[in-house]
Amino acid sequence: MKFEWSFRALAALFVFSASLSAIQAQTVRSAAGANAAAIQGAVDQFRVDLGPLNPNNGQQFNSGRREINWDGVPDSKSQPNPFPGDTFKVRGALFSTPGTNLAMSADNNNPTNTPVEFGDIDPAYSSMFAAFSPQRLFAAIGSNIVDVNFVFAGTDNPAGVKGFGSVFTDVDLADTTSIEYFGMFGNSLGKFYVQNTPGDETFSFLGVSFEEAVITRVRITNGNDILAPGHITGDVVAMDDFIYGESVKAVPEPASLAALGLGAIALIRKKRKA
């Protein structure tokens, strides 16, 4: 009887924990508009949410934030060359796509005279997209999805961050471009949609932060179409600045711990009855 009661007490404790915090408190910063000034306030608020900017020297920090504005990427990793997904591993981020490859747009001084803002893929893109921090933009080829996995700076060891946000350009349609956040057990922490502003060379920003480093991966869905020749009538979207928390030891999200605890109790009871 005492043994059975202890299991019930544990189960009640886990359920109570889950009901108190089904998910950690979130802070969402979102904005959109016709120019960079329209989103600057939301970008700056999100920076404050994450803490001071850490230097890009490969050192591991215990708090603060990282930023990638893409503009220091060399020509060898920019259009027409593919962009390696481990380029910013030193800043705690690994990029991948289910598509063909990742891509970085060229700048005005590239040696091959490649058009800027992915104008080499379709000339119309140079007037559809705009750079929040000139001149380079980031996108995937062969897919509209980009995955970001967080690791300890300079390593392949999984880590967690407390927040992630991105600048987008040319988000025309509502409820198409999104960021989904995942915890250390692969559980979704929520899918959030990016605000839209119809028209060319517009900007959007979305950043979500949590109380602790519960985010281990994000999936970014850009519009409803891919960058490709002739693909200009759908919602084709490119990205600029990434802003995210320092990669630290991941913290399990409370609801995940409760679910695991209840699962373990059910398994023990099943074995005991057998």
Walk me through the topology.
Blueprint: H1 2-20, E1 26-33, H2 37-50, E2 65-68, E3 93-96, E4 101-104, H3 125-128, E5 138-141, E6 145-150, E7 163-169, E8 178-182, E9 188-193, E10 203-210, E11 217-221, E12 238-245, H4 254-273
Antiparallel strand pairs: 1-10, 2-12, 3-6, 4-5, 6-11, 7-10, 7-12, 8-9, 8-11
Helix pairs in contact: 1-4
Quickly describe the structure.
The protein has 274 residues and is an alpha+beta fold. Helices cover 21% and strands 25% of the residues.
Written description of the protein model:
The protein is α+β, with helices and mostly antiparallel strands. The chain folds into two domains: 1-23 and 253-274; 25-251, Sandwich (Jelly Rolls). Helix content is 21%, strand content 25%. It has helices at 2-20, 37-50, 125-128, 254-273, and strands spanning 26-33, 65-68, 93-96, 101-104, 138-141, 145-150, 163-169, 178-182, 188-193, 203-210, 217-221, 238-245. Strands 1-10-7-12-2 form a five-stranded antiparallel beta sheet, covered by helices on one side. The protein has a five-stranded antiparallel beta sheet with strand order 3-6-11-8-9, with no helix packed on it. α1 (2-20) packs antiparallel against α4. Residues 1-5, 9-22 and 262-268 have low confidence and may be disordered.
Question: Major β-sheet, in short?
Answer: 5 strands, antiparallel
Approximate strand percentage: 25-35%
**3D shape:** globular
Count of separate structural domains: 2
Q: Please tally the β strands and state the result.
A: 12
Strand order of the largest sheet: 1-10-7-12-2
User: What's the CATH architecture name of the largest domain?
Assistant: Sandwich
Helix content class: 10-25%
Q: Helices and strands: which structural class?
A: alpha+beta
